[in-house]
Design brief:
Shape: globular
Radius of gyration: 14 Å
Number of strands: 2
Strand content: 5-15%
Order of helices and strands: EHEHHH
Distance between the termini: 40 Å
Largest sheet: 2 strands, parallel
Length: 79
């Protein structure tokens, strides 16, 4: 499947979750809602599914494994 066809099968009321820049660009061009890893962590905290401190631990572990994040703690994007 080519990049141009990668969103052909999108259904209504779906948010694409990806940190891939090219995929996000294509979704934006088509008006498809998107979120990334930080957005998922933020939603989990906002919905009371995990504590912010636990999400910060997940994020710190991801960064230690090479995840490139613009923030080091969720509080930097939650306020």
């Amino acid at each position: 499947m080519t990049e141009e066809h990668s969103f052909h099968y999108v259904v209504d009321n779906v948010t694409i979750v990806t940190d891939d820049r090219a995929a996000r660009k294509q979704a934006n061009k088509r008006g498809i809602p998107i979120s990334g890893t930080l957005g998922v962590l933020k939603k989990l905290v906002d919905d009371g599914k995990v504590l912010e401190s636990q999400a910060d631990t997940y994020l710190a572990n991801m960064i230690a494994e090479g995840y490139q994040s613009p923030v080091t703690r969720l509080s930097q994007i939650r306020r």
